[in-house]
Amino acid sequence: MANKEPEIITDKTQMRKWSRGMRSQGKTIGFVPTMGFLHEGHIALVKEARNHADLVVVSIYVNPGQFSPSEDLSTYPSDINGDIQKLMAVPGGVDVVFHPHNLYDYGTTNPSVENVNGSGGDEERNVGVVSCLENNGLGHETWVKVERLEKGMCGKSRPVFFRGVATVVTKLFNIVDPDVALFGKKDYQQLRIIQRMVRDLDFAIKIIGSEIVRESDGLAMSSRNVHLSPEEREQALSISRSLSRARIAAEKGQINCRELKESVIKAIEEAGGRVDYAEIVDQESLVAVEEIKSPVVFCVAAWFGKVRLIDNMEIDM
Amino acid sequence: MANKEPEIITDKTQMRKWSRGMRSQGKTIGFVPTMGFLHEGHIALVKEARNHADLVVVSIYVNPGQFSPSEDLSTYPSDINGDIQKLMAVPGGVDVVFHPHNLYDYGTTNPSVENVNGSGGDEERNVGVVSCLENNGLGHETWVKVERLEKGMCGKSRPVFFRGVATVVTKLFNIVDPDVALFGKKDYQQLRIIQRMVRDLDFAIKIIGSEIVRESDGLAMSSRNVHLSPEEREQALSISRSLSRARIAAEKGQINCRELKESVIKAIEEAGGRVDYAEIVDQESLVAVEEIKSPVVFCVAAWFGKVRLIDNMEIDM
């Protein structure tokens, strides 16, 4: 099947213009936000998007706003040409790849803001490129916080992560203006945070969570897997394997969360990993439970060498 | 001139449907968010909206999210029928009055959120009416924070005010989907916060700030003026009068902010008011200055009895 080449848009004004134009023709837009270095998990989201909308937009943007200074922003893998090849191979293709350079650069003029006092003071104080890390009074300073859901699990070890995610997703929603947006369940806490944000801020966007895609041996697909050594790659299987065993045990009646968590932690540590957290939480509120009596999700984050991986499994009781 | 009666919409889904319908016809929408009990200041915003868009939507909603428990939510004045009469008297009229009952009630089902795990757990956990003050794991918990601009001036004495304003304006923008929105300069800090938020979150909305409308004796129009006793009403003139004197003094070369602020504080206190703050700040960054060398705004908040009033004057140097 010969697939179309996606239109590459790098400018947010152009992106918005494209969306408005398509909307005015009555077309619906499905949106898959990514940080690039695409794998089968992303491709599954793109395929799913085709089922929900006339047109599909994929964004590729490594968002500096969700990394803290000590994290792996500088080494986050990228391969824009490879990404576009992969997207072209998706049945039906992708209509637009939105690949902005810097979403926190507000430039020297700001068309969305009109200063009607006529003071003329703006020109002198505009400072060109503005990064989200600056704080000179004109830099980015608006953050969307989903205050309770962002606190636990990944929020504990990555304190600015979810405010960065919620903020950039808000920006992307406002630029791309989609009808439907798709997020993978591998980032389970992120999915719930985005769903809550969409409800609380009244975005007219339907959020769809898509199942985790795994390698044939069970490792959850992640752009960060590329950084694992062969040995770490083998050790990392301890996450999905111990989670699977825990799910089977729970389904057989072992509903004590302390014991289930201990077994997962032990398995990962024995394999050579360092557990960041292992938590069994309500699927919607993400509140930790002591016994499994209703649908929960077992979430794990663990380090293998310098690579931090996350994974989870839903247990539906 | 016989003016049309506005359509009254109370449901956010209906509001959005109206906007989408109008947009699909190529119409532009101007939006004036208010808390009702309209005065000439609001009417000036509505008239200005007519200059910028084909259609005008006015929202009337007293937002609980911006009041702290000790503040005057319960006594905030309202008069929806009077408001509609006033809007009908505006030349050209108003197309829609959006008057929702509770923007933080997410009901028992949430069309924007699809739980695709098929667990069926949602129905049991949904809790009917959800207020922004609840914290049972399903209540409103997403807040938009403009972190630096919200800290000073009114933010000092009203700690949740601006996050509440930024959040409800985000909600209203997502529901009403306007091209242009108008805010009065009386709430100067609010205007700058909304402008910054719109820039930082990439809303495709032009923000226009409109000049303060004053009573003939100089008192800035405010819905809260109705709570002033005749004596307090007279005392309150000390704000606008002392600000005017300060502006004239500055224009004549008195640029020392400490002295200018002291003269305003003294005038208000001698009249019987209690000053919350008196600050001279940069018009855009709202950073306090020591000497007036560039465009500033002199902002004041003061109590007269149980009524807290704000006012400001721009000084363009």
UniProtKB/TrEMBL annotation, chains A, B:
<dbReference type="Pfam" id="PF02569">
    <property type="entry name" value="Pantoate_ligase"/>
</dbReference>
<dbReference type="GO" id="GO:0015940">
    <property type="term" value="P:pantothenate biosynthetic process"/>
</dbReference>
<comment type="similarity">
    <text>Belongs to the pantothenate synthetase family.</text>
</comment>
<dbReference type="InterPro" id="IPR042176">
    <property type="entry name" value="Pantoate_ligase_C"/>
</dbReference>
<dbReference type="GO" id="GO:0005829">
    <property type="term" value="C:cytosol"/>
</dbReference>
<keyword id="KW-0963">Cytoplasm</keyword>
<comment type="subunit">
    <text>Homodimer.</text>
</comment>
<dbReference type="GO" id="GO:0005524">
    <property type="term" value="F:ATP binding"/>
</dbReference>
<keyword id="KW-0547">Nucleotide-binding</keyword>
<keyword id="KW-0566">Pantothenate biosynthesis</keyword>
<dbReference type="GO" id="GO:0004592">
    <property type="term" value="F:pantoate-beta-alanine ligase activity"/>
</dbReference>
<dbReference type="InterPro" id="IPR003721">
    <property type="entry name" value="Pantoate_ligase"/>
</dbReference>
<protein>
    <recommendedName>
        <fullName>Pantoate--beta-alanine ligase</fullName>
        <ecNumber>6.3.2.1</ecNumber>
    </recommendedName>
</protein>
<keyword id="KW-0436">Ligase</keyword>
<comment type="pathway">
    <text>Cofactor biosynthesis; (R)-pantothenate biosynthesis; (R)-pantothenate from (R)-pantoate and beta-alanine: step 1/1.</text>
</comment>
<keyword id="KW-0067">ATP-binding</keyword>
<dbReference type="InterPro" id="IPR014729">
    <property type="entry name" value="Rossmann-like_a/b/a_fold"/>
</dbReference>
<dbReference type="InterPro" id="IPR004821">
    <property type="entry name" value="Cyt_trans-like"/>
</dbReference>
